[in-house]
Amino acid sequence: MKGRVLDGAALVLADGDSVATALGDLDDGREVRDGDRTVTLADGVPFGHKFALEPLSAGEAVRKYGEVIGRATEAVAAGEWVHTHNCESTRGRGDVAATEAER
């Protein structure tokens, strides 16, 4: 399997990813170890959904698969569920690519 499994609970697909993917429904308050750090889930995270491994600032890139998959639309604390309520996809967005190229 590509990536690394954290405590049998989540999958991190590449070094440098800022999110992990839940391998089952995870309850809030659960502690998940990632090497030397422990992330405590602030929210319940459904199977297949993501949670932040580190704090993300509003506008900061969200990384999964070693690639940018979106941007945080608000500040996200480590352990928070990352989904459409706080993350906007940038994949396949020609309007975002055009804006990025203008910078």
Structural features, described:
This protein is mainly beta. Helix content is 9%, strand content 35%. The protein contains 1 helix and 10 strands. The strands form 3 sheets. It has a 5-stranded antiparallel β-sheet with strand order 1-2-3-6-9, with no helix packed on it. It has a 3-stranded antiparallel β-sheet with strand order 7-8-10, with no helix packed on it. The longest helix is centred in the last third of the chain and has 9 residues. The N and C termini lie far apart (38 Å).
Key words describing this protein structure:
103 residues, mainly beta, five-stranded antiparallel β-sheet, 9% helix
For the largest beta sheet, what order do the strands appear in spatially? 1-2-3-6-9
Shape: globular
Helical proportion, percent range: under 10%
Task: Provide the succession of SSEs.
Answer: EEEEEEEEEEH
Task: Please summarize what this structure is.
This protein has about 100 residues and is mainly β. The protein is built from one helix and ten strands; from the N terminus they run E-E-E-E-E-E-E-E-E-E-H. The model has no long low-confidence stretch (mean pLDDT about 90).
